[in-house]
Amino acid sequence: MPEVIFTGPAGRLEGRYQPSTEKNAPIAIVLHPHPRFGGTMNNKIVYDLFYMFQKRNFTTLRFNFRSIGRSQGNFDHGVGELSDAAAALDWIQALHPDSQHCWVAGYSFGAWIGMQLLMRRPEIEGFMSIAPQPNIYDFSFLAPCPSSGLIIHGDADKVAPPKDVQVLVDKLHTQKGITITQKILPGANHFFSNDTDLLIEECSDYLDRRLAGELAEPRPKRLR
């Protein structure tokens, strides 16, 4: 998988990129946890999600937000990191102009950034939000949420308590035109200690079902 450096809003961004063998294959971007708490693109869950998409022949990218690894810039409390994610999607779309669809998967802090990116980019047709933190971050911008997706978390998560995630899920369930699939992993904490394989298995099953035309309502084509 090629190491790449591309231009972001605050300087260069470091990533890992694997193109599909198909010209018009969908794109997947994977976003890592909080930069101030050890989050990088080499986080195991981020790494495993990257390969999950790659195995299904997506054109796949994971990258370090500003200030992490070889990525330039300073931590910007989510504002700049959202700009980094948008720049990453711009970069990969410029290389693959025939790709019509995109998925975004984010873990923890990355889930918050991914859901904001979803609101700004109509070509994103599916998302995976792993252990989102609505107790810490404001998700009220999802009004309405434009795409169907998966929210997956553990019932032993003390960083993002299940009751707070449930409030977010219940709110999204009231919206028409999308299907939100929720998976709760018994005994799993925020870091999915000893549960990473099950997490990826559930994400893989969800993706396969979506690719088979399940778990999402038909929706009108949104324009970029």
UniProtKB/TrEMBL annotation:
Pfam families: Peptidase_S15 (PF02129). Signal peptide: none annotated. Residues 17-138 form the Xaa-Pro dipeptidyl-peptidase-like domain. PANTHER family: AB HYDROLASE-1 DOMAIN-CONTAINING PROTEIN, ALPHA/BETA-HYDROLASES SUPERFAMILY PROTEIN. InterPro entries: AB_hydrolase_fold, Xaa-Pro-like_dom. This is Alpha/beta hydrolase. It comes from the Bacteria. SUPFAM superfamilies: alpha/beta-Hydrolases. It comes from Aquamicrobium segne. Keywords: Hydrolase. One of its GO terms (molecular function) is hydrolase activity.
